[in-house]
Amino acid sequence: MKKIIVIITLLICATSCVSTKSTLKNVDDNAPDLVLSKNNTFVIKEFSKDKKYGYNPDYPINIFFRNTKDETLNEVRFLNALAGPNGEKITYTRLETCCPFPTKRSDMGAGFLNVYELKWEGQKKPITLYLNIYEKGILMVPMGLSLKKENN
Could you count the other beta carbons within 10 Å of the beta carbon of residue 112? Predict the structure, then answer.
């Protein structure tokens, strides 16, 4: 009986935090499907001109790819394609999960953003990016970053 009460309480908490209207501004279900490079990173061809893209929870980087069962894999595929502003090697750490929103691509009916901190040599202050594995959008390099050079 205690287990049932705990499960019901968790479900109520999880669903009560989620608004019925999404605040995400850059979801695009018509965006082209993501493609993998030979290095198992996402192929990114566009650079964002929006300062909010990836840096603001309402404008996360949408990296939906086939399914959401292995969120870390898709996040790594995106992050490993990036470099610092002058091609520096970046390191990244997942800080937290935040910002629930409604989505049809989750069994719970809700999705969450994963927050990553990125660092590179010579950087004054680490940057924080918001990644969304549940929705589609045009995949771009956030302002202030570049693409990692491919090994031939």
Answer: 21
